[in-house]
């Protein structure tokens, strides 16, 4: 189906480079007829890659620190002005852990860094939603999607304090989704994506091995970033008007599998 998002307006947070899911979402959203603002932290924008995406999609870039309420207030106000009306969709694709980046074990966390992890990767969603509801910036039946990972439900040792951040993020989806749905019929959901070879994901220790493990565990294999972008388009569209407060798995079936034949064969060879 083409032009599912014709006439819709939005903000896409977190497009870093061509490997990022947010980048793929922006491309797909553009193909489906929407207009949007691209936003990322000033330090990320200095890398310059996002300028290529903005040119390709005819989008404007507005720098914002997603942990700063003041920055978010300016971003949302400017976005509605530049786009010519209220927002219809928002993508929250923001996550970073100083502890994971610097190789700190989960049992030896730097707590100041842990607080930064929570602020960047989870509380930023609450701040963004709170700014939007106070400014009445999202249209009725609008859609907010946050990207998450199954480490919010199950233990994955290399994921460190990001697992706690994702669990908090998913709780915010449910809690704010209730209030925003009641007040403005705005939908809030999270998408739990397969391990994906993004710049951030690839920085996790042992990522390559786990990527292969998840691929063998999933009946359909790991879901590519481009297909995740298609799923986000569906959630932004009017086809999913009554889907809200959900954590939706886009992982090739990984989340529902105890053990796969492919992994059993690996274990049998090793034994």
Structure overview:
It is a single chain. With 271 residues, this protein is α/β, with parallel strands linked by helices. The chain has helices at residues 21-31, 42-45, 50-57, 69-83, 98-101, 111-135, 162-184, 207-217, 225-236, 261-270; strands at residues 9-13, 35-40, 60-63, 87-92, 138-148, 187-193, 247-250. Helix 1 packs parallel to helix 3 and helix 4 runs parallel beside helix 6 (111-135). The model has no long low-confidence stretch (mean pLDDT 93).
How would you summarize what this structure contains?
The chain is α/β, with parallel strands linked by helices. The protein contains ten helices and seven strands.
Number of strands: 7
Architecture, CATH level 2?
Answer: 3-Layer(aba) Sandwich
CATH superfamily: NAD(P)-binding Rossmann-like Domain
Oligomeric state of shown chains: single chain
Instruction: Give the spatial strand order of the biggest sheet.
Output: 3-2-1-4-5-6-7
Question: Which geometry do the CA atoms define?
Answer: globular
Radius of gyration: 18 Å
What is the total domain count?
A: 1
Indicate the structural class.
Answer: alpha/beta
Strand content: 15-25%
Using the coordinates shown, work out and report the CATH topology. Rossmann fold
Portion in helices: 40-55%
Low-confidence segments, given as residue ranges, are: none
**How do the SSEs run, as a string of H and E?**
EHEHHEHEHHEHEHHEH
If you average the pLDDT, what whole number results? 93
Q: Alpha-carbon distance between the termini?
A: 49 Å
- What profile does the largest beta sheet have? 7 strands, parallel
Name of the level-1 CATH class: Alpha Beta
């Amino acid at each position: 189906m083409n032009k599912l998002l014709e006439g819709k307006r939005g903000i896409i947070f977190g497009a870093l480079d061509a490997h990022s899911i947010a980048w793929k979402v922006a491309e797909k959203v553009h193909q489906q007829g929407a207009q949007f603002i691209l936003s990322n932290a000033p330090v990320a924008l200095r890398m310059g890659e996002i300028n290529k995406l903005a040119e390709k999609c005819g989008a404007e870039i507005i720098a914002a620190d997603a942990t700063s309420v003041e920055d978010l207030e300016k971003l949302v106000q400017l976005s509605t002005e530049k786009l010519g009306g209220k927002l219809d969709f928002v993508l929250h694709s923001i996550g970073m852990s100083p502890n994971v980046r610097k190789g700190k074990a989960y049992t030896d966390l730097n707590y100041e860094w842990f607080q930064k992890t929570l602020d960047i990767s989870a509380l930023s969603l609450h701040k963004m939603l709170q700014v939007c509801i106070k400014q009445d910036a999202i249209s009725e039946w609008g859609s907010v999607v946050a990207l998450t990972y199954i480490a919010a439900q199950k233990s994955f040792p290399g994921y460190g304090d990001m697992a706690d951040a994702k669990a908090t993020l998913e709780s915010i989806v449910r809690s704010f989704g209730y209030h925003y749905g009641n007040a403005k019929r705005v939908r809030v959901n999270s998408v739990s994506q397969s391990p994906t070879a993004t710049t951030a994901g690839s920085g996790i220790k042992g990522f390559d091995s786990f990527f292969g493990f998840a691929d063998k565990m999933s009946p359909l294999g790991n879901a590519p970033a481009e297909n995740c972008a298609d799923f986000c388009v569906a959630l932004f569209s009017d086809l999913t008007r009554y889907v809200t407060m959900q954590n939706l798995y886009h992982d090739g079936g990984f989340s529902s599998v105890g053990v796969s034949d492919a992994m059993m064969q690996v274990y049998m060879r090793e034994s």
